[in-house]
Specification:
globular; alpha/beta; 32% helix
Length: 478
């Protein structure tokens, strides 16, 4: 390999590198070697490398590993980082693919960061400090990707800028704080929910990006099948009862609830919510922020709600016996109540309520529907390809697709996510099963044609919309 001393002048950087050339190195190798392949002529592979680094050792390793003759064209460090970020933006590329954050501009950098996150369809921005380094990561399609490195001495001023924008106390560094930043881009308004957490090396900040365009919260667009959509809409029109949305954190439960409230929001109904936190603001809905430190808990709020003449109640989460008992009482006294609960399956909500001390006969009398959901990453339609290997035997898919990676998906192989659902309306026979505490109801669900989460993700897989990597965790989650 010719090192940087073999060149008097670096060549101009190619802006477009063909996919087949980029894929000569994996993201991990590109980050480790600090090299980006840019061309190939037979066994000779040309790379961009940093103009301050000697690549003699890397040359020998690549020749042993791949049998290539290699040549490095030196470019500036910032140009190399830009190429690494552009062509290998995955969680595997590591910190070396990141740019150094230009935080001196203060608020301008933060607004630019928020705009960048929105452009990349990120849901969260993580700003965190460790012993020797600080970094900024974006959560895109459910995965965290490192984007910037922050110089240690600039980290605390950056956190203070965030606190000022979100109206937090910059002198308080021992306790968690929560705030909001308003953001407007081309007329579209966004709320940025800010959470500050003290750690042993400094304060960690997570900023969640939330649109104020509630018209985007449309039930029909969330991912229900036609049968599930019909069953769900029928259930939410009930005058009283309890509807529970089940799933782990980050599975889209809140989005489903907000879309439901938007559908039900009418001037003739009194809708009250108690949330932790309030993620979307809905005109015409009375929303309350949980504040446990002053005694405003889910249970205490529900007790007050019952004296506020409610028609519809939304409870952020059923998380303890007191809340569960109050939720059931609210549903029993003629109100329609929505909430979330952390269970793996829709029917698991029945057992969880029983574990919290709710009598099975009360569960059977109040529970109208249970819904489980997950978010599944979708393959990039521009670069996915047919897989050479065969699918697992129990899937029965003759043809399926796998992730590849291209410029449009930043070489992740995925573009966007879709919610999948398991929707169980409780009829008399299922209510009897709940009353008896039955957990094995597969036969009853099959008789009713209920689509499980497993069925839903297999259907996406067979249609070529997701990969085996997304399928397997779902198959093992039951």
């Amino acid at each position: 390999m010719r090192n940087r001393n073999s060149f008097l002048h670096a060549m101009s950087v190619i802006e477009h590198i063909p996919t087949e050339i980029v894929q000569l190195l994996s993201a991990a190798d590109a980050a480790a070697y600090r090299l980006v392949p840019c061309g190939r002529d037979g066994d000779l592979v040309r790379f961009y490398g940093c103009d301050t680094k000697d690549y003699t050792d890397a040359s020998e390793e690549l020749e042993v590993l791949y049998g290539w003759q290699t040549a490095v064209e030196p470019i500036a460090e910032e140009d190399l980082q830009r190429l690494l970020l552009r062509y290998y933006r995955t969680e595997r590329a590591g910190a070396t693919t990141c740019r150094t954050a230009e935080t001196d501009s203060g608020q301008s950098f933060l607004y630019s960061l928020i705009g960048e996150a929105l452009s990349d369809c990120a849901s969260d921005i993580h700003i965190e400090c460790y012993k020797d380094r600080c970094r900024i990561r974006l959560r895109i399609d459910g995965r965290l990707t490192e984007r910037y490195v922050v110089e240690k001495q600039r980290y605390a001023p950056l956190i203070n800028q965030i606190k000022i924008l979100s109206d937090l106390d910059i002198s308080e560094k021992r306790l968690p704080q929560d705030g909001r930043i308003g953001y407007d881009r081309d007329g579209a308004k966004f709320d940025v929910r800010v959470s500050v957490l003290p750690t042993i090396y400094g304060e960690k900040v997570v900023m969640r990006l939330l649109t104020r365009q509630t018209e985007l919260l449309e039930l029909r667009n969330l991912g229900f099948t036609p049968r599930q959509y019909e069953d769900y809409c029928r259930a939410v029109r009930r005058p009283f009862g309890m509807i529970l949305i089940c799933g782990p954190t980050g599975s889209g439960k809140s989005t489903t609830l907000y879309a439901t409230l938007r559908r039900l929001n009418a001037s003739t109904d009194n809708i009250l919510t108690i949330e932790d936190p309030v993620e979307y603001t809905l005109e015409g809905v009375n929303q309350v922020q949980l504040k446990e430190e002053i005694g405003l808990t889910f249970g205490s709020a529900l007790r007050t709600f019952l004296r506020q003449d409610p028609d519809i109640i939304m409870l952020g989460e059923v998380r303890d016996p007191d809340t569960a008992q109050m939720a059931v009482r609210s549903a029993l006294t003629g109100h329609l109540l929505f909430s979330t609960i952390h269970t793996n399956t829709a029917w698991g909500a029945v057992a969880r309520l029983a574990d919290m001390g709710v009598h099975p006969y009360l569960i059977a009398d109040t529970l109208v529907m249970t819904v489980a959901q997950r978010l599944v990453r979708l393959l990039c339609p521009h670069c996915k390809r047919r897989a050479a290997a065969s699918a697992p035997r129990d899937i029965e898919a003759d043809v399926y697709f796998e992730a590849v990676g291209c410029e449009r998906c930043y070489y992740t192989g995925y573009a966007g996510r879709r919610a999948i659902y398991e929707v169980i309306p409780l009829d008399d026979e299922l209510a009897a099963a709940a009353r008896a505490g039955d957990t094995e109801i597969a036969r009853l669900l099959a008789e009713r044609g209920i689509t499980s989460l497993r069925d839903a993700v297999i259907d996406l897989f067979r249609r070529g919309e997701t990969s085996l990597d997304e399928l397997i965790p779902m198959l093992n989650s039951r």
